Records
---
Amino acid sequence: MTDLSINLNKIALIRNSRDTEYPSVTDHAKKCIDAGADGITVHPRPDQRHIRVQDCFDLAGMLTVEFNIEGNPFAPATPTNRSGVCDYPGFMDIVKDIRPAQCTLVPDANAQLTSDHGFDLRKDGERLAPLIEQLKSRSIRVSLFMDPDEEQIRLARQVGADRIELYTGPYADAFLARKNAHEVLDHFRRAALVAADVGLGVNAGHDLNLHNLPLFTEAVPGLLEVSIGHAFTVDCIERGLRETVKAYQRCLGKH
């Protein structure tokens, strides 16, 4: 059965638009869990434009479900004021201190609006391998954000990953355009089969929603987890949070 992990970045983004602690990220996490979510995902970026470092620690102190922290493992500490005091200690330091159940490594640059491609392990594999080992030595499951490229997925296993998270943006675009969706989806199906063949678990995320998720779930074998945030937040406006969680769980075959 596929787990549903709710990404709370957009809740944090709304909060950050005012000088306030409302809406509360931890309160929304609890509401999602009470409604039936299987996990919580956050993506703390160096500019802290949505999830902040303190949010990660606050969530770690209250969660009763799987905690997944995603981000760029190469993101360094960043000083943010004139005295040089740093409130972003670097992605790896955040994760090492918190020790979430899962860490999803993502190759996003600071200037990117959102994650939009997977790792090129021919280029970054040698740098990633020791970082993956550091996380695994702390009993953190490591997932790599990847395109549905069969060669790259085999390399993900070689550098030590436990899982991959398939970047589903191209599938969501094809589904929305009603053009070649099944052809694009077949790339993801074959990628998942390769992952299973080399012993990798398969997660997926990016622009999945109530419309395109059922077809994806049906077509991609062995799907362990999906992470959904942007569409989830929008759906909550129309349906309410509790019903939205239940609607996504129905898409995953759970009632």
---
Amino acid sequence: MRPSRRHWLSTGAIALAGLPDIARSSGPQPHWEPVKPTTTLRFPDDHGAHPGHRIEWWYVTGWLKRPDAPEAGFQVTFFRSLTAHPQGNPSAFAPRQLILAHAALALPERGRLLHAERASRTAFEMAGAATGDTRVWVGRGDSAWSLARDPATDRYRAHIQGEPFELDLELAPNAPPLLQGDGGFSRKGPELSQASHYYSRPQLRVSGRLRLSGQNASVSGTAWFDHEWASELLAPGAVGWDWVGINLDDGGALMAFRVRNRDGSVVWRSAMLRDGPQGPVRRDLTPQFEPLRTWRSSRTGARWPVEMRLQIGSRTIDLKPLLDDQELNTRGSTGTTYWEGAVTALENGRPIGRGYLELTGYAGALRF
């Protein structure tokens, strides 16, 4: 779910929580295309952008094996926002669509994230999100950030160029898209309009290159991919969400989220559990999140429940972070602060998988 994603609920990664002022308007409310429960997702078209919807993101999180170093977490997220600027303005400079991107590495040896972000309007090919298939980018030439799917192989390529790190990764799915909610219609609140179209691609096989501190290293690992788009998301009074996506060691996948009110009560929750790489999928689960431990950020003062217990059906799963300080301050792009962290899932004290936990609304209510 995501964007803060990302991710919002994705989250993803994380949702566009606090868009720059250019995306807001004091004039008449613009028309956003609604998310409808009757819509059937069709591929490859729905791999691509949906420019009539207000917000959209492509979100990749995972774990990387590195030579002679501990495993690291990584996040790559691209957001597209349809702004409140009049869409009929013929000027090439008109900021009709914004593309924003986040990238982060969770490095145990450093004890906190390395993070970078970019943002641009879509004018003059400085950024864009293609329809028809996944191709989204910010920047030009060798320095561009990009995420694209090869239709011939169904593999994704993520390219993050610059400081303080570089990533060049290939992401290979082992199954078709996994539709979340009811056929890809994912409720986020009591009203049907409070929903997204949402699918996931768990258990991506990762290979590629990481450049860090001037050194190149070959990396491999496993990742989770989310793609969501919507025009309305949170119910009145909702401040944020908790979301988790776990690649299970048996080849299965677990996704769960809850949307929270200011008083901590639950607005909406949902979960999905797939048994094994090709097994049956359950979507009738009601997850319960219980914070086990919080970490306070010295930078923002926010308290993040970085260790969670997830009750899903008859199963109790504990989520333990790779490191506590996985807070992202993205005020330079989406204008919000959220926690997006690599976690290990344990059941009866034994590891059963790894993935990412996304926490939003603890450093201030999300704004859409």
---
Amino acid sequence: MKITVVGRKVNLRDNFKGLVEKKLSKFDRIFDEDAEATVTVTVERNRQTVEITIKQRGLIYRAEETAPEMNDALDGVVAALGRQIRRNKTRLEKSKKVQPNFDLADTYFEEPDEEINVVKTKSFFVEVMTPEEAILQMNLLNHQFFLFREDEDGEINVVYRRRDGNYGLLKPQNK
């Protein structure tokens, strides 16, 4: 796995980069060598956020953790990634074409299997509006996200409320 470590508002020491590589090395048996991991560390006041994104053949695993100490945030984000990989082990095995007797659960994680159940389907008309109007509508409905059609390009976009209280915008990317 190729690992890229990026620091935002912080200069990262080599020993932290080495710790990142050591922690992510436990996923080497799961991901191919062509997998790409990006580790982003952001320091703001007395909180340190570590975000890890692993991409391999169209699969994306992403986790983020904030803690007062950078190493604690790293431990938390690696554990969260482990849980995601455990939940999605079948998809990952098909992607990597791992032998059926190789069980990721026995090797790394001890979390019960979770079934994915779609319990509700909802259809609605997608309004044309600006992202700002979509955020206002989302807040009026007290939702965490809102789907809308961008007034500039006509593409379907999503605005969402982030954990830090700010907002995010998801835009489709054409290949």
